[in-house]
Amino acid sequence: MIQGMCVRCQRMVPADDLRVVAGGAMCSTCQVASMNDGEADAMVRALSHSTGRKEVIIGVVLIAIGLPVLWVGLSVGMIALLPIAMIGGGIYEIVRGISRLST
User: Which of 34, 25, 31, 33 is nearest to 6 (CA)?
Assistant: First the structure.
């Protein structure tokens, strides 16, 4: 029989009883207990904040690349769609990331 260790109670349990979650694998008893004590809500909030930070960083990078490319294009008299799309996407990612960080 294949067994695994629960990250919360540190017991060896059958693999069929383990459920993989963000923090590792939990047995069904610990998973039910974590749902009742709000630990799952804290994990979801932490994941949302982490995703929000990544989205803000990606948005800043998109704008940081899109603006110089747009300026170079304007200096030679051409407006390209790619830098405009990068700037728009960057603004979208920043707004989306900030909204996730505020929850």
Answer: 25
Q: Which residues, 6+ apart, have CB-to-CB distance to 93 below 8 Å?
A: 55, 56, 58, 59, 62
Q: What is the CA radius of gyration of the chain?
A: 22
- CA 65, CA 90: separation in Å to the nearest integer? 10
The pTM (predicted TM-score) of the whole model is 0.62
54, two tokens: 């990544």
Asked if 103 and 45 count as a contact pair (C-beta separation under 8 A), the reply is yes
Amino acid present at 101: L
Predicted pLDDT of residue 78: 85
**Helix 39-75 to helix 28-36 angle, to the nearest 10 degrees?**
80
- Residue 80's pLDDT is 85
Mean pLDDT per 10-residue run, the chain (103 residues)?
84 84 80 70 80 94 94 87 93 94 82
Provide the H-helix boundaries in the chain.
Answer: 28-36, 39-75, 81-101
